[in-house]
Amino acid sequence: MLAEDSVLLREGLIGLLSRYGHEVVSAVGDAQALISAVEEHAPDIVVTDVRMPPGFQDEGLHAAVRLREKRLTLPVLVLSQYVQRTYAAELLDSGDGTGVGYLLKDRVGQVEEFAEALHKVANGGTVVDPEVVRQLLRRRRDPLEQLTPREREVLALIAEGKSNGAIAKELVVSEAAIGKHIGNILTKLDLPPTDKTHRRVLAVLTYLRA
Prior knowledge:
The structure is a single chain. By secondary structure, this protein is of the alpha/beta class. The chain has helices at 7-19, 31-41, 59-70, 85-93, 111-122, 130-141, 149-159, 164-171, 175-188, 199-209, and strands at residues 2-3, 27-28, 46-49, 76-80, 100-104, 126-128. The longest helix has 14 residues, at 175-188. It has 2 domains: 2-139, Response regulator (Rossmann fold, 3-Layer(aba) Sandwich); 149-209, Arc Repressor Mutant, subunit A, CATH 1.10.10.
């Protein structure tokens, strides 16, 4: 089962997988279609991109986590242009911890390595790109370590429940400057825009945990 919104890459992957003896039972371009197709075809393994319609954020990765919740032993190999840490750790912890992989798309260019990773995941193994491991470990050490002293100060004031205007007044800067600091904080804490969560609240929770 293949999910990739780029038609060119999707067709290329179909050809590559077929060349190595795999049958692609269905190839789709969005996360909802992925979930429906898995329910219909019950594939041996799912290969999915992280960013897909409609939001092009982490829909594919979120769908993979949901699929693993429904079918604990479903092998899933995730491909991404970058490390989306929001659900990466959850994916790797999902199910019984076997049959899961997270590779950066650069690995697809290394055909034999990709084919080997696919085979390993399909047989219950775990394959994680070294860059994914590095970023997940860095996040677990201290999620706030990437923030500047000023950004930590702003986040602390947000945690006190203060508005942008109140923070600007206390720090004697413009509201525009505070807005920029908050944007940087949300980016560094890996909190992408989504309709399902309130990023300011999540940032505060991260601060309190740390």
